Amino acid sequence: MCKSPSANATFTFPLQNTPKICIHYPEGVQFLSGPDRIDRAGELLAHGSLVIIPTETVYGLGADAENPDAVARIFTTKNRPMDHPLIVHISSADSLDYWGVNILDYARDLAAAYWPGPMTLVVQRSDKARDFITGTQNTVALRVPGHETTRHIIDALAKAKSKQYSGVAAPSANRFGKVSPTSLDHAVHELGDYLQESDAALDGGQCDVGIESTIIDCTGPNPVILRSGAITETDVTQIATLSEFESAVRAPGMLASHYAPTATVRIIDSIDQVNEENEAFLALAEFETPNNCSRLASPGNATEYAQVLYSALRQADDLGCSTVFVIAPQGPGIAAAVRDRLARAAHGE
Ligand code: TXA
Ligand code: MG
Fold this sequence. Notes:
Layout lengths: L29 E3 L4 H10 L4 E3 L6 E5 L3 H11 L8 E3 L6 H4 L5 H10 L4 E6 L6 H4 L4 E5 L4 H13 L7 E2 L14 H8 L8 E3 L11 E4 L6 E4 L5 H5 L26 E4 L12 E3 L11 E4 L4 H17 L4 E4 L7 H12 L4
Parallel strand pairs: 1-8, 2-8, 4-6, 5-9, 11-14, 12-13, 12-14
Antiparallel strand pairs: 2-3, 3-7, 4-7, 5-6, 9-10
Helix pairs in contact: 1-6, 9-10
């Protein structure tokens, strides 16, 4: 049962105006603002600090990808298993050959078509991508984020180190297994208590996409999608033929149970299956709210569903609900990626 609003109320929050949750901002964590915030973020990263950074998918917990001590702190801050490799964020495809080797033509074509954007390419690693990034695999995952601020931060890191290229290792800025943050408030709510005084956070607004990037294994003769996202199968097949075979590449972290709020997520097909009152409900706008349930969001289509998904799951916890009843969006494309995240959030139910 949800603790508030009152049992009979139907609670909705609009897409653009998610209410601020009450957060304890830890003392000492620096919130970077003002015109020099990008340079300061680059300098802090160069000195081994962690910086919470915006991307168009979800917020990331960033560190200099060539600094083993800083990267080690990503794992302890998130409580993430050490063998789960990290995505290296780069500012343009120009540094593909700094981080990778033997990069296949179709991978370059995908990069040209969809970077900057919500797509991560797994390629053979160069000696710059060391074991502490790749979890000892011989591949590295690379992404040029769509958020301009973050691309500038990556360049500011290179400038602070007087180097031509740099990379920011950044997993989603949440504790391991939990819901990814799509606003700075949510990221600080997740990690604020675990950061140090020398760490920082930078606001880039609400994430446009709302779910994590599509991950594509580009080490074989044809690409293989390892994690679905906003760059869809159809998008990939416009550039290259998808492999008929499973990938030999592991993507540790793709656990059946992930992206989970504290509330139990139950996926249903129709509101007739809501068998408890005063719980939370999430579905496309076309579905009515079941009696006495708190409506978390009413996205108009699958793209909007992805945008609001994680903040809706967080809202269920804020309301103290024990169950979220969810009707998933149907069809291919980003709807399939939303179903993938919902299935992981609901694992065990
Ligand atoms: O949208 C995103 O991708 C966000 C933002 C911050 O960029 N990042 C993100 O990172 O979702 P994370 O760490 O939460 O998920 C990264 C996934 C993990 O499942 C990991 O196993 C996989 O990428 N991965 C990283 N390096 C890999 C590699 N070399 N081979 C296969 N999978 C890899
Ligand atoms: Mg994650």
